[in-house]
Design goal:
With 378 residues, the protein is an alpha+beta fold. It has one domain (51-375): Beta-lactamase (3-Layer(aba) Sandwich). 34% of the residues lie in helices and 17% in strands. The protein contains 10 helices and 14 strands. The radius of gyration is 24 Å and the shape is globular.
């Protein structure tokens, strides 16, 4: 009987050891897989601003403002969610809520182009037709798409004449096919003048796919989202299930922009979804040279034409605002009930982000807000 008990005990110990080894192998494999698919994780601690500075910041937002706000300056961080994500149900806004970035999306598209430039895959002053051999505007260069000096007409104003099934999204392939087939007449000759145009950035998304050999969304995920640590960012049509509940609906007063809108499927110029904290991670990655080098960032911040009477110009993917306190590199956006702002002073490791999903909350004086941040060192 003692021999039997001893044998059972030995079998139990052997089973325990084998299980532990298998679990260790599984754990190592899990860690390996996580490393393979991992995002950059920000581990630094950031200080808070003092109360007087915060009170002054918050005075820029009128009563009833709903949205998320983040301010970063030289190692100090402020972030707060105001008001409601849904005015009807009075659901409180959360800091990790996700907004359609509208034209702020262009900053990511331009960064993707600069990554390809650094890899020697794209030349900015090369005609686009050298990469897309059926591109319908042979004199337009990559740079002219980036700085809105291509002179092209805005596809948003005329594609509805042929896109009859509004229950489906137009994608970039359908956009490109339309442009090849119909070749809409440009507003201007290339490089005559600045003319802001979504067509430019829809073309850039097509170009990125062609040159990289990857889907545009996959290229951005691998070369921007992951190295920057942007875990909660995605393009329309590529929404991860884990963040579904945090994606907001755009509103104009109490009207909700629900349902399918065919132009939402065209990427590059818009249709990037993200959070304030993810945009801050994007700022840090650009500031610290984790996405593009200093030379490329400086090129993105260089005016493509003389500053206008209001102190404005455009670089590569960013608007520029020249103020007595220095140049801000920024982009604002609006699309179907979302209003977004992403303002940067990369040389000072400073930025602010304001995201809202209702019209009432869009009236914030961004320039005054920007100047206040730079003037005060609290």
């Amino acid at each position: 009987m003692g021999v039997i008990k001893h044998s059972i005990y030995c079998i139990f110990i052997l089973f325990f050891i084998v299980s532990a080894c298998n679990n260790g192998v599984k754990k190592k494999q899990l860690i390996k897989n996580q490393d393979k698919d991992s995002f950059y994780v920000e581990k630094r601690k950031f200080k808070s601003f003092d109360k007087r500075f915060i009170d002054s910041l918050e005075s820029f937002f009128e009563p009833g403002f709903s949205g998320t706000v983040l301010v970063y300056k030289k190692g100090k961080l402020y972030k707060r969610a105001f008001g409601y994500r849904d005015l009807g149900r009075k659901d409180s806004m959360c800091m990790d809520d996700i907004f359609q970035l509208a034209s702020v999306s262009k900053t990511v598209t331009a960064t993707a182009i600069m990554i390809l430039k650094e890899k020697g895959r794209i030349g900015l002053d090369v005609p686009v037709i050298q990469y897309l051999n059926d591109f319908p505007y042979p004199k337009v260069t990559v740079r002219q798409l980036l700085n809105h000096r291509s002179g092209l007409a805005n596809y948003i104003y005329y594609t509805d004449t042929f896109w009859k099934d509004t229950s489906k999204h137009m994608d970039n392939g359908a956009f490109y096919d339309f442009m090849i087939k119909h070749k809409p007449t440009p507003y201007l000759d290339p490089d005559v003048s600045f003319s802001y145009c979504n067509t430019n950035y829809a073309f850039l998304a097509v170009l990125i796919e062609k040159v990289s050999g990857m889907k545009f969304t996959k290229f951005v995920e691998e070369h921007i989202f992951k190295p920057a640590g942007m875990r909660n960012s995605f393009y329309k049509g590529y929404k991860p299930a884990r963040i579904k509940s945090r994606v907001l609906t755009g509103r104009y007063d109490r009207y909700e922009y629900t349902g399918t809108y065919y132009l939402d499927g065209v990427l590059g110029d818009k249709s990037l979804y993200s959070s304030a904290e993810d945009l801050w991670m994007f700022h840090l990655a650009l500031s610290e040279g984790r996405l593009v080098n200093k030379k490329s960032l400086a090129e993105m911040e260089r005016p493509s034409y003389d500053y206008n009477v209001y102190g404005g110009s455009y670089g590569l993917g960013f608007r520029l605002m020249n103020t007595p306190n220095g140049q801000w590199t920024y982009h604002n956006g609006w699309w179907r009930g979302f209003w977004t702002s992403f303002w940067n002073k990369f040389d000072q490791r400073s930025c602010f982000i304001i995201l809202t999903n209702n019209k009432h909350s869009s009236h914030v004086n961004k320039l005054s807000f920007a100047n206040y941040i730079l003037r005060n060192n609290k």
